[in-house]
User: Fold these one by one.
Assistant:
Number 1:
Amino acid sequence: MKRTNKIYTALIFVFLYLPIAVLILFSFNSSNSTNSLAGFSLKWYKELFSDGATLLALRNTLVLAILSSVIATIIGTLAAYGIFRMKNKHVKNALLTVNNIPMMNPEIVVGISMMLLFVFVGRLVNAQSTLGFGTVLIAHITFNIPYVVLSVLPKFKQMDRHLPEAALDLGCTPFQSFYKVEMPQIISGIISGFIMAFTLSIDDFIISYFTIGSGFETLPIRIYSMTKKRVTPDMYALSALIFLSILILLLISNFTGNSNNAKEKKPVTLKQKKTRRIVIASTFAVIAIITGAVFISTATTETVVVNVYNWGEYISDGSDGSYDTNKAFEEYYSNVLSEERGHKVKVQVNYTTFTSNEDLYAKIKSGVGGYDVIIPSDYMVERLKNEGLIQPLDLNNIPNYKYIKDEFKKPFYDNGKDTYSAMYTYGIVGIIYNTKYVDEADIGGWDLLWNEKYSGHILQFNNARDAFGSAMYKLGISVNTATEDEWRQALSELKTQKPHVQSYVMDEIYNKLESEEAWIGAYYAGDALSMIYNNENLAFYYPKNEDGEFATNIFADAMCIPTGIDAENKEHAEAYINFMLSEEPAIANAEYIYYGCPNTLVTNNQEYRDYLGEDFDVIYDPDIEENIDDLFSNYAYRNLPADKLALLNKLWEELKVDSSSFGGGIYIVSGVIALAIVGFIVFSYVVKVRRRRLYWNTTPKTK
Amino acid sequence: MNKKTLIQKAAAAPHIVWSVLFIIAPLIFVMYYAFTDNEGSFTVSNFTELFQASYLEIFLRSVCFAFLATVICLVLAYPIAYFISRANAKTQKILIMLVMLPMWMNFLIRTYSWMALLEDTGIINTFLGFFGIGPVHMINTAGAVILGMVYNYLPYMIIPIHSVLSKVDVRLLEAAADLGSNPFTVITKVVFPLSIPGIISGITMVFVPSISTFYISQKLGGGNFDLIGDTIERQFQTAYNYNLGASMSFVLMLLIIISMTIMNKYADDDGGVII
């Protein structure tokens, strides 16, 4: 290669490997930041091996990849055989075209089309939960089969047609002829198809994202939910390890394996044949053992599964040595059940997270979930209750319910005869700003989020209700009884804000404010305090209106049980809720989440008060505590009537697709390039025609 | 003989059943949802809704972004694929392995890593800061989204072009040179036409995922550059409007089928390539 060529090649490789280098570098970072280095440490590697959820996700990913690629390889190889032998050309072509669909279709369409099928069938048979391991397995097999077919089929075509015939003439049964004669010739195609299927399955995110349900999380899905708030460097550590092992594998296969060319020239010795057979046999044996072990481990002990669906960063999860709530429940409840039933019962909490009430609603409403415990906010509890999507709690099974403060026992969203919810936390929306960049004179109200001075450093909620809420509090419109005109007013307010907004975020706000990438954002008070703890330049306030009155959202999140689960699961769910209300987990969660806690076991606990220190008076502001009923009735979101909900969805859609912030430069550039390409094609065609006329005096044949 | 044909026929049966259940049926459901309202009665309003200016702009934007990403990928990938194909067999193998290696790492985390690089307080700007430059605003721009697409799908362009180029007979190039072509003409008149099959499959493999992506635009565009993928994802995961989402998917499928047909037709004229 020439020197400039080498430099160019090197530059492309720098581009390809830059983010991977960053990732490996930051896996050794001693702080949890993913954009500034603090020092060298191996703690994230240690953390990784104690992070149960990540390891479980890794295991799930491997199990899914092995199962789906094995099944796809079997079906695909048989199909290739059948297609190859097929006499009817039309059928053959039709099959191949259908086979190509999953590869040609965008992944998102494959994902949603399967989701629609599953949801529809799930409704038809009235299943408790539609999406889960089974559906994601079916999806993976579906997109794996075409790759297997396409890598095996050419091997059949290359094979001498007369060989199997000769075998049959010599007395082989069709099966023997397939196994002894055809198989050895297609095995390399099968193996490469299998490897292809395996890697596609391991890396798949988009199709899994639409077909996965509660209780089963793969690594890419876990990474996705992490990138919604912050990716902890232990995920970087895992990626670095994966990268390293693949690199080593590839290097070994590259340097020790005899290259393809050599293989063709030299006849294969018996010994080589034997070793090859042993290698193949042992690979399949390992796969079989792993799959077998997984099945046995899940089948031997009776396992009780509780599927919990909660907000992100909303439970004490054992990180940094904190209390691991779900693990504690598993142990506690496993003991309870084992004693009750007289044999060992394993309890498993499948914990998954959502980022907005609307996400939760979409999951529950479509019936795909299979969730046992969900934790929506006030207005969503009301909506789910009105639509019959959650069921009354049996308070006899939740004795700890009595510890909830009386004023929170019959909150506005759930004050009927039955009790549908047990309050988990409550809090107020405040505005967080960076004192280094933001002028103190500008703070006080919601207009800080509209202040052009800070254009490009403002964050806005990425959910309809909160985003519209911010505009309505600013304009002094009631968030619950606004007319259509008022909703539209709020929309135009948000549209004027859009050019100044850096991005629409939910839990990503932590990283953006702490790294000072953004300066201003509205979020929930407890989270604001944790951000201030991580970056002292941050401060926050409760926004007031022009008359100096308090004007912001107060909210409560509560534990509920969806309808449709059977009586036994409901009991487990109630046991979970009861556990969450008991002293140790309640305190651990309150300390972790940093929101207001309605549980008297927590608020009366001296250790907890000491832990919060000065923050206690911020979270449990005496002014707020005194008027809590008033605040809830005036400032909390209520469920909206159906027509307003539809309007809100429509307006949100309008805001999201509004493109006032986008210039036309890109269109012009693409247009010019497109014209140039079309021009080139026309030009080369004309040249071709002319040349043919010149030399052969003919025109090009049209096909 | 009868027994044999039976086995041969039966061999494809699981695949046929599977395809009907999990490839054809889901697509029928997409159509069903696209042409019904949420009570299940027939309507075309999902499509008329898409004719609003704002949705048309999303389609236009997605097409433009994907188109630019594809063009940039092609421009970047062609030279490197050519250089690699001219190296000796062993180097070729290693270099191609290095091109493929990043694809084995999860694309979400690699894209997230780009965020850390591009942010105003990110690594590149910190680095530039040492030289007193910047900060250069890069993230949450159209450029960042296109960069994300180019980064993620560049290997899909390099590999097919390389595999075609590595099969080009060197003697052809020598013959062209002997007949008086300069190196530039050899590339434009001999190498390039021979590599069109690779280019076509590279374009498909970059264009299709680019036009339907949603993660890249969310992370690197800050939610300011909604693409078709984002809008579809929102209908299914947040807005609970399956019907609108299905109709958008339907249009997306049509868009892709149309562009592939046009491209295949052109490719057919030139060398008879079917992807």
Note: Residues 53-86 of chain B form the longest helix (34 residues).
Number 2:
Amino acid sequence: MSKAVTALNGVRFTDGIADVAELPMQGMITLRGDLSMAVLKKAVKSNTGLAVPDQGQVAQDGAFAVAWMSPDEVLILCPYGDVQGIIAKLDKALIKAHVLAVDVSDARALFQIAGVHARAVMAKLAPVDVSERSFQPGMFRRTRMAQTAAAFWIADTDTFHIICFRSQARYMFDLLCVAAQKGSEVGRF
Amino acid sequence: MLILTCPCCGQTGEESEFHAGGEAHLTRFGPGSSDDDFENYMFMRQNPKGVHFERWRHVYGCGKWFHAARCTMTLEIFGTYPAQTLEPPPDLRAKISARRPGWSWGAVS
Amino acid sequence: MSTRLATQGRLVNRDKAVRFSFNSAPMTGYEGDTLASALLANDQMLVGRSFKYHRPRGIVAAGPEEPNALVNLGVEGKFEPNQRATTTELFEGLLATSQNHWPSLEFDVGAINAKLSRFMPAGFYYKMFIHPRPLWKHVYEPFIRQAAGLGQAPKGRDWDTYEHLYAFCDVLVVGGGIAGLQAARSAAQSGAQVLVLEQTAHWGGRAPVDGGTVDGKPVDKFVEELVADLAELPNVTLRARTMGAGVYDHGYVLGYERLTDHTPDMDGPRHRLWRIRAGHIITATGAIERPLSFAGNDIPGVMLAASVRDYAINYGVSAGDRTVVVTNNDDAYRTALVLKNVGLEVPAILDARVLPVDSPLMAEAKAAGIRVMMGHGVAKVQGAKRVTGVSVCAQAGEGATVEEIACDVVAMSGGWSPVVHLWSHCGGKLFWDADWAMFRPDVDKAPIGADGSPFVSPAGSANGHFGLTEILGDAHAMGRAAARATGFTPKKTNAPDGVCLDEAPMAPVWLMPQGAGRDLRAKAWLDYQNDVKVSDVQLAAQEGFESVEHAKRYTTLGMATDQGKLSNINGLAILSDALNQPIPQTGTTTFRPPYTPISMGAIGGEARGDVFQPIRRTPMHDWHDANGADWEPVGHWRRPYAYVRSGESVHDAVMRETKNVRENLGLLDASTLGKLIVKGPDAGRFLDMLYTNMMSTLKPGKCRYGLMCGENGFLIDDGVVARIDEDTFLCHTTTGGAERIHAHMEEWLQTEWWDWQVYVANVTEQYAQVAVVGPNARKALEALGGMDVSKDALGFMGWADGTLGGFAVRAYRISFSGELSYEIAVRASEGQAFWDALMKVGTDLGVMPYGTEALHILRAEKGFIMIGDETDGTVIPQDLGLHWALSKKKDDYLGKRAHLRSHMADPARWKLVGLESTDGSTLPDGAYAVAEGTNANGQRNMQGRVTSSYHSPNLNKGIAMGLVLHGPDRMGEVLEFPGTDGTTYKAKIVSPVFYDPDGEKQNV
């Protein structure tokens, strides 16, 4: 029914030291509010099955994830088709609270970088210690990658997920392909 | 290139994640203020050689503004704290006084 | 002649020959050679010409300090000038050519400069070419430019790729010699993460060449075992071919890794720039041998003593058959002994010192049958393109020759200087060690890190320690201390036991002989690449350039690509002597990164080609591209300037599109406009502070155009605000303004009004937005079907949610063209589909997409201002006649106080008017209107300027807007605008609204 297409139509790159792929449309809801409010925690839990994560963390389970974005913001990841329903439920549950729940699914692009060299590829672009010692599953990092804003986390073993602006999806994809180019192994992660 | 720890999200990042915002703890003067007060608020800055309180925004991170106390000579960062305050927290002031004997908050011209 | 020895060569593989060429001559070396060692093995000592006098230049050193052996490498997209032969690893097919000569290396016309050298001292160019002034631009400068520059700039695009890497560690060790390796082990035993960088392809530095034993084993063996141990440790990373290029604030270090320079056919990036953040840094960067200043010390064949030894031992290469060693210290004796051992002749060691007893090394040399002449030195070197002999003199005298000795190599040693560059980059201080005549790190004055504690430690010879025992002891201690500094507990272990021969004290020798006369001093080189001699530095001092930084720039000492690695200390010793002051009082010039030049490619990293900039693309970008878009950059966005059809010029397309909007139907991709959701109980109050006009009174379902000023009163943005519900507004910003205005809002909310209940979210990219504009706009939407878009249901400056053609949309009835106009927002993921649907229903309605230039003309016909055209950061709303948008009901808004300042309220501020050329032509954009008289600088007085100017196809004439002194009061006056093309344009002051002044067309 939906005519929704991702920015790059699910483009992939598999000719390098790690595989790069644009993932399908992903439901994303920005929820701003006082994260310590019981009513907010409850609303998040009932709509995603997940607790509001601690600072710098992401909670994931199946099709849902909740990422800590800032002291007054979480990002809810859910199936694309569920977004409007969840926003309506959040608005209803939080009607008396000062919050903002807004659909940002179409404003973002989601990429996956996978393989044993995934950390090395990330380390070429983000000014963040992504070694196993410092960056582990469950962590969520907002930073820049090369010249654009990005957020990433470990979705699975040797697999990073990266969120960026939809308008810069092409830039991000090209960037990841350059960083994953053949022969560019770092041998240090 | 500096490293800063954002007090709002706890991340320590390099300067390129942040945006510098000039001197902290300015008092806004709006309509009804004197020309001198407005000029001071709008244009006059400390620019000390030594301890400086400044505003930073974690622009590529959590997006929050915070304040940093930094030595403009050695680039030592004494500490960072959220921007929703009118003056630096007492423990930070004590730390700076210990590190820079003779320094105290408000004594800077 | 120089040649390959039958023995030695620990770094080369004699089973693997490697073919290469130098100046088109085919040559052969071995795997493991550097280009320099291979050239010497092929008897190619002459490798270039100097910069100023075009003197013949030979290989002097064996490492990164080499000033002379700079070559062009490769061809086309692999071409690179100024590459040091001494640090270039040989590979099959390497193509090298020499630089800075014409027509050939052997016969260079520019060498005439050398004959004139006594007429071209320091400052020659400054003094010679200053008069007469007019000649500079047309005669002197073109001539000098022609002669200036070392090597050629590459012409083609670089074929290689480059990348950055962000790396983090507790302890970073720069330098993989024995000091660095030992420091790494001592630090790593604590569990700290250690990263070790070594600029060459080999570990151990020069210790294996210099001899001695560690823990009873030869140094070679010790290094091999140590490297193997470190490679096993999970917390240690060893990185060869990676130079520590610079140390910066808070433990930031750049490492320059050369991945494929030695195997250019391999896949992958050529260079990788490591952007390292270290808890603590150990600079184990070794030491560099100093030349001696004697006449003719630049003649090919005069080399550093230790480098002569390096070529023999590391590469099995003899620099010449007969080597005279000249020294002021014991270390050069090792070279004499090595040469003697491989069967080469060492006719004499000239030792400038006078010592009471022989040191062990001196005794060994004498025992080997080498003649040692104490208290002697070189008066001058014989030869032109190659050393043929030396004239020996007493060091204490004025240079009277006591003996001529035939030789083809002079191996010189003036002592050693610790490599303090990286220590100094970030503020580490130095002190003068008079015993060894060198600057060395003052460990009590180390660079200070983020936490206020020192973050750099020097180790080994970089810290001024010589001798295996001292080096290993220092490295061990520094490694342990670095571990402690990063929060680890070092193991209680002892340093390895290094044993080497004791050395006699060195004696500083800054000029040889010490009483050398003018003729000798004028042939005693300090800087080989830039042709700076002892006499030049003395002249600089005499002419008043007393600061070392001034003398450096006046003489160009140390300003060549080697940055004075050999010349610096000798030069400032000469300067100190000329100024009659001690060396530490003269001080050093500033050490700046990078340690040796690094490639521009590595600095740029991945940011080239497609990923040079983070370009933003709208959901309809590809459609625009396929339909003739001539792109215009707007911030990081790319917007179609016009859609050019075949057979059309860009101007034609703009005219066609502009007319079509007024006559039929135009579609504009407006997705780039910023969209910010502002929500909360205090949202209205907040927007009242941010906009100059009143937003809190806006009714849900309605839109209002708003102006935003900064606190200093100047316009920063404008756009339409829609009230979504009681608590929620949607604010449109200019293209490219979304993030800036979002940040502006967050700044005020977080830092001034943090108790106000407002949340802001940037939803710019959630939507594709299409402006549907023109008399047929409503028909097009009705053809799509769905929501009621009639005047009654959706009046001017209203908005409504609904569906159109099956798409969920938000329709805004706003106009930036003066036509009937809707801006329709759909989900970004459906943007292209929606655009396609509009194009389809528009086929019968005369639809055409239009670009930003048509948009500009349409708004200018209506007199609508554009942020960035009519504003430039110095313009206030009052200048633009926008008083109606300045609320008088509000006590405060950003900019209100500033508007009361005397200059802001000055009636003489230039004001917005329309400008109509008297002959229908288009005024040059940015042109100034001249007034009578001149200002204090003798320049013509000005009374206004053009801010926007276009040809209007709808009015068929040039129209413009401008800011003019008392403009609105001067309607009908004609102003003169001199153009840069020499013609003067005349234009009449008119109303800025050229089209449909009553606004009837947009309100239908």
Note: The two ends of chain A are 44 Å apart (CA to CA).
